[in-house]
């Protein structure tokens, strides 16, 4: 007798049942309680096992990786399941039965004339829209009578308390052909609208940061007509253009037909889980970039372009540079004025020294002349007086020379200060130029409380039913659908 026992909750199994199991296939366990219960059972079946090693191996298991423990083997093994793909389409709708018949090669039986209106009329071929491509989704049906059209005249009820929206029919009949990348045939005529259910989700995120002067709102919108039946959606792959809430219709076209609602749109529990997942995705994958020049204390959000931010930085740097340039210039001007003032005083002293020198020379020449003349006269002049005048003249000459040297020194100091001033001003200009060009980017993420899911539910998307000969095409009647 063999028994296969499968569970995701080891704590629900009897301990004796676990300890009598010979072959184990263990996947990753979410809680430590489950893991410890499983290890207890393993140790009961194989007392010699290394509990710590098994604990570590089970904790490090990845997705689709399992631990194989066999009581007849010396050590455990790890293996990975192969990938498998299946298509679980669910219950067939009435309009899909002809396609199944054609796939199986079955031919419909002939019906009485009065039942002809209820017969199937050929195959349905469906092409799916791709996000970012201009061609819209087109569904083609071969028909022989207008009585057999896709969908139902009765709108299916949305289960539970899920929200229900009606996207506007904002494309004309001819525009729908253009969006689909087709020309309008002369024989084409409209048979009305059919609404197909889609998943619509839209969030509004507010970024508020006083430090960065940031007050910005961001929206993420998802619109998909083919959500995964299990409710597993890669939200970034089905992003669409934003939906203006006031553009949604209050009610559908009264003459329109409706497609059926299938999983996951028909499962309130799955939809609620998807809404939580959509909120989490927004929280973990949303951010905005703030441009910053921290030296200038300038910040801007995504609403300001890079060129505009650089202009703001340049203006702020120019204002601060002018202030510093004036400060530096005033500092050196004050030093230069001090030296110039001293030089002017020395120039005045030089004039006085030159005047005194001229006077001393005249006195010296006069004294020398008197001394020479006294040699031929009766009164003799003393040579000491001439020598004294000579010493006074030499002193006056030294004062003139000293003043000239002082003026020359002051001129040198002025030139040096002027050169230092130019160098300092140039350094200020270069430094502020560099500061103005220093732009960094700061990523700002939102708080969960600032994320609002303003739309989430079943969105009825309008499609035109266009008849061309005995065929009926479905052309998207909502402009935003081509972006989804």
Write structural notes for this entry:
This protein has 484 residues and is α+β, with helices and mostly antiparallel strands. Helices cover 38% and strands 21% of the residues. Helix 2 packs across helix 3 (51-59). The two termini are 55 Å apart. The relative contact order is 0.15. Mean pLDDT is 81; it is low at 111-137 and 143-147.
Number of helices: 8
Please tell me the overall pLDDT: 81
Shape: elongated
Main sheet, how many strands, which sense, barrel? 9 strands, mixed
Q: How many extended strands? A: 15
Distance between the termini: 55 Å
Low-confidence stretches: 111-137, 143-147
Helix content: 25-40%
Cα-based radius of gyration, to the nearest Å = 48 Å
Q: How would you spell out the order of helices and strands?
A: HEHHEEHEEEHEEEEHEEHHEEE
Q: In what range is the share of β-strand residues?
A: 15-25%
Structural class label: alpha+beta
Offer a few descriptive terms.
single chain; 484 residues; alpha+beta; nine-stranded mixed beta sheet; three-stranded antiparallel beta sheet; 8 helices; 15 strands; 38% helix
SSE layout:
Blueprint: H1 15-19, E1 23-26, H2 32-45, H3 51-59, E2 65-70, E3 77-80, H4 97-104, E4 124-127, E5 138-142, E6 163-166, H5 173-179, E7 189-209, E8 214-224, E9 239-240, E10 257-258, H6 268-285, E11 288-293, E12 298-300, H7 306-374, H8 383-437, E13 440-444, E14 451-468, E15 471-476
Parallel strand pairs: 6-14, 7-10
Antiparallel strand pairs: 1-2, 2-3, 4-5, 5-15, 7-8, 7-14, 8-9, 11-12, 11-13, 14-15
Helix pairs in contact: 2-3, 7-8
């Amino acid at each position: 007798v063999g028994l296969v026992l499968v569970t995701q909750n080891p704590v629900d199994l009897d301990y004796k049942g676990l300890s009598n199991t010979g072959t184990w296939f263990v996947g990753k366990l979410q809680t430590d309680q489950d893991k410890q219960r499983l290890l207890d059972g393993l140790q009961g079946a194989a007392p010699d096992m290394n509990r710590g090693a098994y604990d570590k191996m089970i904790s490090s298991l990845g997705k689709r990786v399992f631990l194989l423990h066999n009581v007849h083997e010396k050590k455990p093994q790890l293996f990975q399941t192969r990938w498998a793909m299946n298509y679980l389409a669910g219950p067939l709708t009435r309009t899909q039965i002809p396609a199944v018949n054609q796939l199986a090669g079955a031919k419909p039986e002939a019906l009485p004339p009065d039942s002809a209106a209820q017969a199937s009329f050929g195959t349905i071929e469906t092409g799916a829209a791709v996000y970012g491509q201009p061609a819209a989704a087109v569904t083609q049906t071969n028909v022989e009578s207008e009585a057999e059209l896709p969908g139902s005249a009765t709108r299916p009820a949305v289960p539970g308390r899920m929200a229900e929206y009606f996207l506007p029919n904002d494309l004309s009949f001819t525009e729908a052909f253009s969006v689909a990348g087709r020309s309008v045939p002369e024989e084409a005529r409209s048979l009305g609208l059919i609404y197909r259910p889609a998943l619509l989700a839209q969030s509004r995120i507010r970024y508020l940061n006083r430090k960065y002067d940031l007050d910005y709102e961001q929206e993420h919108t998802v619109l998909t007509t083919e959500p995964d039946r299990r409710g597993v959606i890669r939200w970034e792959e089905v992003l669409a253009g934003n939906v203006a809430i006031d553009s949604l219709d209050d009610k559908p076209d009264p003459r329109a037909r409706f497609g059926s609602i299938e999983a996951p749109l028909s499962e309130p529990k799955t939809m609620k889980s998807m809404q939580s997942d959509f909120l989490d995705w927004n929280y973990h994958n949303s951010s905005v970039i703030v441009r910053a020049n921290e030296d200038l204390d300038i910040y801007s959000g995504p609403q300001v372009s890079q060129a505009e931010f650089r202009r703001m930085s340049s203006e702020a740097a120019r204002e601060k540079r002018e202030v510093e340039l004036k400060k530096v210039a005033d500092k050196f001007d004050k030093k230069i004025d001090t030296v110039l003032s001293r030089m002017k005083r020395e120039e005045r002293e030089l004039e006085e020294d030159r005047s005194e020198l001229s006077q001393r020379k005249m006195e010296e020449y006069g004294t020398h002349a008197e001394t020479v003349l006294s040699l031929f006269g009766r009164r003799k002049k003393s040579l000491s007086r001439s020598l004294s005048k000579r010493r006074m003249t030499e002193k006056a000459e030294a004062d003139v020379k000293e003043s000239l040297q002082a003026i020359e020194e002051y001129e040198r100091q002025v030139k040096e200060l002027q050169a230092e001033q130019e160098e300092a001003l140039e350094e200020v200009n270069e430094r502020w130029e560099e500061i103005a060009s220093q732009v960094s980017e700061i990523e700002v993420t939102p708080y969960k409380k600032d994320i609002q899911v303003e739309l989430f539910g079943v969105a009825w998307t309008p499609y035109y039913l266009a008849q061309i000969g005995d065929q009926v095409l479905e052309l998207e009647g909502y402009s935003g659908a081509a972006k989804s």
